[in-house]
Structure formats: structure tokens, C-alpha cells
Fold this protein.
Amino acid sequence: MPEAAAVRSLFTRIAHRYDLANRVLSGGTDLIWRARTVAAVRRAAPAEILDLATGSGDVALALARALPPGTRIVGADFCQPMLDQAEAKKSGRRARRYAAVTFQQGDGLDLPFADASFDAVTIAFGLRNMADRRRCLMEMRRVLRPGGRLFILEFSQPYAWFQPIYRAYLRYVTPHLAAALTGDRAAYDYLSDSIGQFPGRTALAQEIAAAGWSDVRATPMTLGIVALHQARA
């Protein structure tokens, strides 16, 4: 598992170019992945949502655009420079639409929220950076009301025939391209390694169930390189 201080330092260094790197490295498909996650949340119609590891706020702000006005959305992250990027987006031309969105610091292993505070928790590409996945999964369940919904968008392991191509991309292309975009190759060496070592969707679904969640299911996307996991508290 990654060390929390190292992960915070990494995201502090790349916060200013994080969105650009995501768009380029994914060929823009990260927008599709997030849109499908937001659509799944919208179908659940929660009134209060925690977007954990919110980063630059893409999912939190997309939820505000997709859900009825007044839906309460809290974006939490333990890296202040990433939250600064989120706040800058919130203050743009859609500032009035984002009035129900708040951003604050919060550690996924010790969330600063009372039990049963939310109807849904989302986390996009943040679970693999937690120092203790089981503890994070249990914390997310703690802050959900009974029957609350969990939505985890995360990298996964691709279909077998595509694995050699994907691993070559992660090893040889991603770090060089990211270094050109962000000036920080070391950060993306870590991120590429964390993606390659992360469990596939079946193994992660088992971890989620073992942490006390029910109705766990996973939907693969883009040849299996990403999966959306859903569960109930």
C-alpha cells in the first residue's frame, strides 16, 4: 500500500497540470468514464453525496450539473493544492449552479464526518492511493446511511488479450508523456506502477464485500482497463 505522505507530496507536485495529463494520457476517455459514473449516481437520486478523493473536483462538479438543484455535494481530499484547483473551477461561470458543492480537506482513512451523514459516496481513481483500502472502505460505509450507495470508479486489469499492449503503454509511454506534460516523471512512474499492481474487478469486488458491503457489482469499461464498482451499505 502507498504511504500517505508520499501520495500527498506527489499530487501536490502535479496538481497544476493534473487535468491536462488525464485528458492526454487517456485520450479523453476519462471524461466518458466519469460521465457514466455520474449517470449511475443520478439514477440512485441521492440527496447528499460525499465525493472522496475529489482531486480537482471533476466528479463533484459534474454531479452538481446532473442532479437536481439543492443536492448537497461535499468534495473531500487530503491534498490542499488539488482542492485549490477544484475551488478555482467552482468559481467559474457556473458558480451559481455549484452553490451546493463544498470542498474540504479530509483523510479517507479517518473521515471528518459523523456516522450516517450521506446517501451516496463516490470515489474516482482514489481508492488505489489509499494506504489501507479496507479501512477506507469501512470509513465510507460508516458515513453512509443504511442502504446508502457506493460508487467506485477505478483502474482495473484489462481483458487478457489486451494486457501486453496495456502494460507496455503504462511502462514505456505513460511516464515519458507525463514527464513532458507535467515535468514530473517520478510521479507518473508511481501512478503507472499503482495501476499495474491494482486488483482486477473480481478481486476488488471481493475486497468490497469483505469490508461489509452488499449487492456488490462491477461494470468493466474500455477493454477492462477501468471498472465502475457499485455496492450498498
Residues 163-182 form the longest helix (20 residues). The chain has a mean pLDDT of 90. The longest strand covers residues 144-155.
